[in-house]
Design goal:
heterodimer, A: 289 residues, alpha/beta, 6-stranded mixed sheet, 10 helices, 39% helix, 22% strand, B: 284 residues, MetI-like fold, 2 domains
């Protein structure tokens, strides 16, 4: 990565120190969603958090973005507490749903964060234009979100998240609702954008191929309570394209992630299996989030 | 990514053909209703003539129109002046009730305590026959003053709008609020850019109901006394004089006013929330 030559590259963009999070269940009992999470994320890294439902990966992403407070531990972002980083607008967020506003055109949706930052109209227009070019939707700037397909809507959401050049892009299963073909196209798209912008990205997914294809590092998480099971460097050459998906090394890495996910489950003797328990856990996570 | 261009869902052809299609749709949409309406009037006329029904039981539509013309600006019953007075009462009540409801809704949406207190009361108040309060309104605001009728209308209008707008103001998706939080947006910004636009469709739905209620409130208020040049009094006086053709003419005026109010809201909707699903469906 070219940005390693920059002096600031040594300081981690995100530093998680002993993060834990406990949720109160509806019946009054307590559920530990996350325990003892330590990660450093360097500038320009693409880090994926992968794990089964209920492993707390979305919760962890929200803790990094200061949308949820941790029960224990510290989040340091660009040398500041997470709340300060949020107030400084260091974060761009992309959710599973595009969360576009129906009353705004595509262009006006992208301008929203710029309006909130108080940028002048000319800068807003220029920036939105640039971002829509980046996601190749410049011809749709005057359309409304409901006139676009799901994949296009999610690209608008990405353009919006990148519009104010955030230090970190946080993406929470952004392509989870898309079909496999569109998802692969979106993965290549995000690759291309990341190559061009060098934005630090934290990406939550439950898709192994997606995580391996895009990331510089994959953080495999295990459930009950959510812990880091394994951290893997993804040494696939860049730029990554269709050939990458067919390379031997890619398959090796996919297998390695899959085994890390499975191995963790097998080694867990108090595992009460998938099904009602994990569904409940997910529900409590949803309530708290 | 250009393959996605083919998957554009709807209305990608721009706004001109959309509007064109919309107008055609509107005419064909209302055609059956117009046919039934005109047919009904003709049948009414024929049935009354054929059966020889007496005018005090059911006047012919032609007789009602004649009564309307005879009593429009001259004659025994001043229909024009009455219609104007009643319309002013209804509109005045609509404005007062709507403004009060919106102000209350903002408080209720902002403070959960206020909401928990006001929403159940609002829903319960909708079940009370508020019309029973008409003599009290006359007592408080003066039977002869149009204000007492406006207040009747305002009370009827208040509850549906208050309840709906409150619901609208708290209806924003959690993800939308998370997004605004990630921008460190102030509460005021969230209100302006997310909550108010989300609440607008709720408001217009309630406003359609409220326009009708405002006329009901005004006319029923008039039944309980006050100026005699108002539709409510004309209906009472013409009926006791067995001039049912004039009664029907007054009812017709009230009905037309209600329909006018409704379409005024439809026009406002098209101006303020053209993006809403209920309005864009026509271009599918």
């Amino acid at each position: 990565m070219t940005d390693l030559t920059q002096p600031s590259a040594d300081q981690p963009v995100v530093r998680l120190i002993g993060i834990g999070r406990v949720f109160a269940r509806r019946d009054g009992s307590r559920m530990t969603a996350l325990e003892g999470i330590d990660i450093d994320i360097r500038r320009g890294e693409f880090v994926s958090l992968i794990g089964p439902s209920g492993c707390g990966k979305s919760t962890l992403l929200r803790i990094i973005g200061d949308l949820i407070k941790p029960s224990s531990g510290d989040v340091v972002v660009n040398g500041k507490p997470a709340e300060r980083a949020r107030r400084d607008r260091d974060y761009g967020m992309v959710f599973q749903a595009p969360v576009l506003f129906d009353w705004r055109t595509v262009e006006d949706n992208v301008k929203l964060p710029l309006e909130i930052q108080g940028m002048d109209a000319a800068t807003r227009r220029a920036t939105a234009g640039r971002m829509l070019e980046l996601v190749e939707l410049e011809d749709f700037s005057h359309h409304y979100p409901w006139q676009l397909s799901g994949g296009m809507q999610q690209r608008v959401a990405i353009a919006r998240a990148l519009a104010f050049e955030p230090a970190i892009l946080l993406m929470d299963e952004p392509f989870g609702a898309l079909d496999e073909m569109t998802r692969e196209r979106m993965n290549s798209e995000v690759q291309r954008i990341w190559d061009r912008t060098k934005t630090t990205i934290v990406f939550v997914t439950h898709s192994i191929p997606e995580a391996v294809f895009m990331s510089s590092r994959v953080v495999v998480m295990s459930p009950r309570p959510g812990r880091i099971a394994k951290v893997m460097d993804i040494d696939l050459p860049r730029p990554r394209d269709e050939e990458t998906r067919e390379s031997e090394r890619y398959f090796e890495l996919v297998t390695e992630v899959r085994e890390a996910l499975r191995g963790r489950d097998a080694g867990h003797d108090d595992d009460d299996g998938e099904g009602p328990a994990s569904a409940r856990r997910l529900a409590s996570e949803g309530v708290a989030g | 990514m250009s393959a996605d261009v083919g998957t554009v869902a709807r209305g990608s052809l721009g706004s001109e053909p959309r509007q064109g299609r919309g107008t055609v749709r509107t005419v064909s949409e209302y055609a059956p209703a117009i046919v039934v309406f005109v047919g009904g009037i003709v049948a009414w006329e024929l049935i009354v003539s054929t059966l020889g029904l007496r005018a005090f039981i059911l006047p012919k539509p032609s007789a009602i129109v004649a009564a309307l013309a005879d009593n429009w600006s001259s004659g025994r019953f001043g229909l024009l002046a009455s219609w104007q007075a009643t319309t002013i009462e209804a509109v005045g009540g609509l404005v007062i009730g709507t403004l009060a409801a919106i102000a209350t809704a903002f408080l209720a949406a902002r403070w959960a305590t206020a909401r928990n207190a006001l929403i159940p009361l609002g829903v319960a108040a909708g079940a009370i026959p508020i019309i029973a309060f008409a003599p009290l309104m006359n007592n408080w605001f003066g039977a002869l003053s149009p204000l007492s009728k406006m207040m009747m209308a305002a009370v009827l209008v208040f509850f549906p709008i208050m309840v709906n707008v409150t619901r609208g103001l708290i209806a924003a998706e959690p993800a939308a609020l998370e997004l605004m939080r990630s921008y460190a947006a102030s509460e005021w910004t969230v209100l302006r850019k997310v909550r108010v636009p989300t609440a607008l469709p709720f408001f217009f739905t309630a406003l359609k109901v409220a326009t009708t209620l405002s006329l009901i409130g005004a006319i029923v208020g008039e039944y309980f006394g006050g100026s005699s040049l108002v539709l409510g009094r004309i209906i009472v006086q013409a009926s006791s004089a067995l001039r049912f053709d004039v009664t029907w003419a007054a009812v017709l005026l009230a009905a037309l006013t209600g329909i006018m109010f409704y379409f005024a809201v439809v026009v406002l909707e098209r101006i303020f929330i053209p993006w809403h699903a209920s309005l864009r469906a026509e271009e599918a």
